Amino acid sequence: MMKCSFCGREIEDGTGKMFVTKSAKVLYFCSRKCEKNLNRLRRKPLATRWTEDYAKEKKGGAR
């Protein structure tokens, strides 16, 4: 199983989408929503409330 490059959720085998950038970096997406937020809208996972990265940052910063 792989993790989504944007939200961090597990992607089941046979589902999702793999995107390869011009710099040969491989990105995996669980849904069109995640792909659009990262590629077209240029949003950062740390600033998007529903991602795992945001939850980790929020939890770690509230000590």
List the helices and strands and how they pair.
Elements: E1 2-3, E2 10-11, E3 17-20, E4 26-29, H1 32-40, H2 52-61
Antiparallel strand pairs: 1-2, 3-4
Q: What does this protein structure show overall?
A:
This protein has 63 residues and is an alpha+beta fold. The protein has a single domain, classed as Ribosomal Protein L24e, Chain: T (Roll). It has helices spanning 32-40, 52-61; strands at residues 2-3, 10-11, 17-20, 26-29. The strands form two sheets. Strands 1-2 form a two-stranded antiparallel sheet. A hairpin with a 6-residue loop joins strand 1 and strand 2 (10-11). The longest helix is centred in the last third of the chain and has 10 residues, at 52-61. The model has no long low-confidence stretch (mean pLDDT 94).
